[in-house]
Amino acid sequence: METTSTVTLQDTIETLLKSKKYATLRDILTTMNPVDIAAIFEELQDEKMPLLYRLLPKDIAADTFVEMDDETQKFLIHSLSDTELKEVLDDMFLDDMVDMIEEMPANVVKRILRQSSPEERKQINMLLKFPEDSAGSIMTTELVILRPSMTAEEAIKRIRRTGVDKETIYTCYVADNLSKLIGIITIKDLLLADDDTKVSELMDTNVISVMTLTDQEEVASIIKKYDFLAVPVVDKENRLVGIITVDDAVDVMQEEATEDIQKMAAITPNTDTPYLKIGIFETWKSRIPWLLLLMISATFTGMIISSFEDALASSVVLTAFIPMLMDTGGNSGSQSSVTIIRALSLHEIQFKDLVKVIWKEVRVALMCGVALSLAAFAKVILVDRILLGNPDVTVYVALVVCLTLAITVVVAKIIGCCLPMFAYKLGFDPAVMASPFITTIVDAVSLVVYFLIATSILHL
User: Fold this and answer.
1) Average pLDDT over every residue of 285-310
2) Three-state SS across the chain?
3) pLDDT tens-digit profile of 176-227?
4) Residue 323: is its pLDDT beyond 50?
5) Which pLDDT value is given to residue 14?
6) Is pTM beyond 0.85 here?
7) Phi, psi torsion values for 57, nearest 5 degrees
8) Has residue 271 got a pLDDT over 60?
9) What residues does the CBS domain cover (predicted)?
10) Gap between the terminal Cα atoms of the chain
């Protein structure tokens, strides 16, 4: 029997390293995207990283460094000489450098700042002062600024002279002598215009901008909404201080989505470190507080069951339907909460839409409740009573189950849509009010409804 083996690019790179075929390695790496090269570094043994990194051309090395995870960057910084580190930093955009510095320990940060120019240190310190998750913390100050009095020819010359080190040149920004943002213009407009046409005649004065303290999630939403490649950032006096590019907005969207998913699963968010690189103790710390909280809150369910022990003793068959009722209620509430949380994060709804949301969810809940009750009634009678031959399952028991199911679904969907909206109104992240909390609350409500209906109809 023949066996086949697949030789991956990673295997090829490691084989060439062992064989010391550095010229071949360099030729291969120069044809690859920095993102793919960074992925190779993250799989390499530590001692091989510096050697392979030194084979990269200067421009590719800087782009690759930006794409690496924190641990790989940290290891390489310790391995590189001051001269090599300075070369990397010189080719990095300022916002990427700030992002890296925020994740590094103090001793590494000091070394990075020592290799930065005085102007870079000043810019870095300015960006680090902005609150985390604000527009100012993710913006770059490397942009092309034009004056309204320039001609198209003069503007293009300026772009050629200064654009090499800028984050983007596709969209340029027009500011007056006081640095106040007054317009935007694209490179396409400049190239297609006559040489002597003034920038003031070509620029678009209807500028959409964000403030330095605007939440980064809102910035990402604006970029997505208007299909921007970049959005300008201004201070309180409308002075242009930087831009946020679409690549940074995509990173924000990914981080926010990851954070929401973790909160919805009752996990303390950790969006900076890949799953396999988070230690067991760190993972435990992020999960155990929420599990303890939910376990304690779930004791209310036990208290409710204990308070209706006499009813359960009179009709033990009721116990068999508790899991179905609780699960259905929890699932119904989760459906609504996840839908509302997503709509809030996309700014499709606001708190003022609460009545509309409740009215919609109530109608959906009634339809779901009726459909589920009919299906449950058929199941209880046909399966539990006839097929399984359980005489304790009477029509009245089926009626209790079906009524409880319908009411639970309605209540669950109302709770599921209201809690995230109230959290949003109070300034909390709506994702906190997701499945675990909704399920715990709905479980308690469904049991109370179940036993109250049972005692009323079955006279327990």
Assistant:
1) 77
2) CCCCCCCCHHHHHHHHHHCCCHHHHHHHHCCCCHHHHHHHHHHCCHHHHHHHHHHCCHHHHHHHHHHCCHHHHHHHHHHCCHHHHHHHHHCCCHHHHHHHHHHCCHHHHHHHHHCCCHHHHHHHHHHHCCCCCEHHHHCECCCCEECCCCEHHHHHHHHHHHHHHCCCCCEEEEECCCCEEEEEEEHHHHHHCCCCCEHHHHCECCCCCEECCCEHHHHHHHHHHHCCCEEEEECCCCEEEEEEEHHHHHHHHHHHHHHHHHHHCCCCCCCCCCHHHCCHHHHHHHHHHHHHHHHHHCHHHHHHHHHCHHHHHHCHHHHHHHHHHHHHHHHHHHHHHHHHHHHHHCCCCCHHHHHHHHHHHHHHHHHHHHHHHHHHHHHHHHHHHHHCCCCCCCHHHHHHHHHHHHHHHHHHHHHHHHHHHHHHHCCCCHHHCCHHHHHHHHHHHHHHHHHHHHHHHCCC
3) 998 999 999 999 999 999 999 999 999 999 999 999 999 998 898 899 888 8
4) yes
5) 82
6) no
7) -60, 155
8) no
9) 139-201, 203-259
10) 71
Out of 15-29, 157-171, 281-295, 351-365, least confident range: 281-295
